[in-house]
Amino acid sequence: MIKYFIYCRKSSEQEDRQILSLDSQEHELTRYAKEAGLQIVRIFRESASAHTAGRAKFNEMLKGIEAAEANGIIVWDESRIARNSLDGGRVIYMIDLCEIIEIHKPGKIYKNTPDDKSWLGMLFTMSKKDSDDKGVNVKRGLKAKAEKGWLPSGAKPGYMNDKYAEKGNKTIRNDPERFPLIRKCWEHMLTGAYTPAQILGLLNDEWGYTTPVRKSIGGKPMCRSQIYTMFADPFYYGYFEYPVGSGTWHKGAHESMITKAEFDKVQVLIHRPGSPKPKHKDFAHTGLMRCGECRAFITAEEKWHVICPECRYKFTANSRSDCPKCRKAIEDMDHPVTRHYIYYHCTKRKNPNCTQGSIQEYKLEEQIDAYLSKIGITEEFKHWAIKHLNELNDQETESRNASLSLLQQQHKDCIKKLDNLLALKISINNADGSLLTDEEFKQQKQILQAEKARLEELLGDTNGRIDRWMETAEKAFNFAVHARHWFAHGAWQEKREIMVAIGSNLLFQNKILRLDLQKPYCYLEEAIKAEPTVSQMFEPEKQKLTTPQLAALWSQTNPLLPRLDSDQQPSS
Q1: CA-CA distance, 73 to 83, in Å (whole number)?
Q2: Which residue in 205, 438, 210 sits closest to 446, CA to CA?
Q3: Are 369 and 471 in contact (CB under 8 A)?
Q4: Which of 390, 401, 428, 476 is deepest in the core (most CB within 10 A)?
Q5: 3-state class of 309 per DSSP?
Q6: CA atoms of 315 and 326, how far apart (whole Å)
Q7: Contact 480, 563 (CB under 8 A)
Q8: In this structure, are residues 161 and 154 in contact, taking their beta carbons and an 8 Å threshold?
Q9: Whether residue 254 has pLDDT greater than 80
């Protein structure tokens, strides 16, 4: 009496897209067994590829046959059993041992005969070859796609695959919902004022980011590991490696989110030596200043002081629950006086004997506000300055066009050098490598390709560079107008960004903050010294100066005009 197992298998791979679903296979095979009068012991269902060995349900079925629970198999098709030589050979060997007496499929029965075993083995081999051929074709297609500049794998955060594109020509485009959010993450990271973990919190909790929904997955916040992976991925400045680990890099055809220079800056910030570890409490100015005496970082410490109403003793309540003098519990005190302080001081990690003291946060911020007052300008001056910069921009159009022509010529020369290098390499006279060795060819090719990529980035960036410069200038002037107000009323994140924006080389010594104003704010400081009417502190009403009179005055002030530009535009 032969007992049978029904085995149903389905996978999501290309090999199985024309095969019935598991439910359909089970229904058809059960009906076939009933019509043929076959005794069914058990039904196995599995969603797994048969390209490699190791299917759990398949192995469980063969163990059941070895234990004599059944001695026959019913399947929809031979390829359901095996697409690899190990599983196929194992089944045929079990037929040789008479552990498997029959294998049924609708319309065909395989028994322990030379012809049946030979035919079954040939079908297993054909299934394997079909699977292997598809694997080769898929790899070939993915390689061709990468050479066209399209990442073969799934789109990165901020991007999406174009589902409406023709099959085989799928492209990657910006995700209209997530691209601005991911770009915002890079912008925050570039300020140097945030850690990846802090940016992840903003992305998920405040900006409402969720992963794209695909069938039954997605719709969740970004995980911690993914944001670190994202900040180290060259894909965002336009390059990707395929296959991964091959050393072969492709220039992406997708829109870059950042430039190569911005990417390099983020890598420095992520791996910055001596960077303080994330804290449970966030402070506005930690990790930005160094001690002027020992050059260690300046850290912050929060303290809660309590004045006991019983004995009037003042003590720190950070790690205490009672008064150290009268032992009165804080929770039992009637209306205790509590005071909150934030102190900034040297970590003393480089020199435990550093003599620098601490300063309260409000006194430190008074000094920062004093720096902001040095660059504060009026709305009238902002409008005049932007108008003047637009006039300068119009005058320099011819110069920019000449620069663009020069870049185009350099790009053509670089391509010509690459062509000449290849021609020399494959020349008959270089058959023995006497003119150009393989190593020399590889080195020179890499140098020329890097130069070509640099020129292409400059060419692609030239047209929009002046627009971005004007946008940067407008932001800088707007910042100078409102920075003091933002600093006084902003959250700790805004205060941190403002501090990073205005200064570099921040040193704290003898309770005094020293910093170097960054461009263009150092120019604004000089402009205000040269012409006080630029400053917010100047009151034109008292001096009876109208807006046209001020504009005429600024236009005639020689020390003022050359310093109105940003560090991205040469001084006039």
Answers
A1: 17
A2: 438
A3: no
A4: 476
A5: coil
A6: 11
A7: no
A8: yes
A9: yes
C-alpha to C-alpha distances, 316 to 301, 308, 334, 362, 364, nearest whole angstrom: 12, 11, 18, 19, 22
Burial of 403 (0-12, 13-18, 19+ CB in 10 A): middle
Q: How confident is the model over 483-499, as a mean pLDDT?
A: 86
Q: What is the pLDDT of residues 514-567, one digit of tens each?
A: 998 887 788 778 777 777 777 777 665 555 666 777 777 776 666 566 544 444
Whole-number pLDDT of residue 4: 93
- Residue with token string 């061709």: 144
Tens of pLDDT, residue by residue over 261-312, are: 788 777 766 754 444 333 456 788 888 899 999 999 999 988 878 888 888 8
First CA to last CA distance, the chain: 100
- Alpha carbons within 13 angstroms on the beta-carbon side of residue 93 total 8
Q: How far is CA 358 from the centre of its chain?
A: 38
Strand pairing partners for 109? 104
CA 76 to chain centroid: 46
- Angle, helices 492-502/438-489, rounded to nearest 10 degrees: 120
Domains contained in the chain, CATH given = 3-145 (3.40.50.1390), 159-270 (3.90.1750.20), 290-357 (no CATH), 379-563 (no CATH)
Average pLDDT, the chain: 81
If you search the block for the tokens 């009068």, which residue do you land on? 37
Q: Is 58 in contact with 44 (CB distance < 8 Å)?
A: yes
